[in-house]
Specification:
With 130 residues, the chain is α+β, with helices and mostly antiparallel strands. The protein is built from two helices and three strands; from the N terminus they run H-H-E-E-E.
């Protein structure tokens, strides 16, 4: 006589609601700690990039002055066109009335960079980002 075999019971596998909730809480805590650090890192990187671009413009202005003996008619969009493409800072060049000195100002645009201080550099070497 053959006996009737019952299929083996399958064990249900998966995560319980408590386990899923613990994982969600852990991910929330980690992201709450990591996000401010990440945004600070991004702001500092963008500010350093703008500082480098300001220094490149200052070098181009000094080369222009060496060739033309003044800063008259110096245009930062021609001397350093990548400054016009800066997404996070608006760069302005102010040449004084005697055409012998300049000030470069970088104002943060809206978004992630808002709230940061203005960066300035002048022809006598004074800078405001230290």
């Amino acid at each position: 006589m053959s006996s009737i075999q019952t299929p083996p019971k399958r064990k249900l596998t998966g995560f319980t609601l408590i386990e899923v909730m613990i994982v969600v809480v852990i991910v929330g805590i980690i992201s709450a700690i990591a996000y401010p650090s990440y945004t600070r890192y991004v702001k500092n990187t963008r500010e350093a990039e703008a500082q480098g671009q300001i220094m490149e413009l200052a070098s181009a202005l000094e080369a222009y002055r060496a060739k033309h003996f003044s800063y008259k008619d110096a245009d930062h969009t021609v001397l350093a066109p990548e400054l016009a493409a800066n997404e996070f800072y608006s760069i302005d060049l102010d040449i004084d009335g005697s055409n012998q000195s300049y000030t470069i100002e970088a104002d943060p645009k809206t978004g992630l960079m808002s709230g940061k201080d203005k960066l300035t550099f002048s022809s006598n070497g004074e800078k405001s980002w230290d």
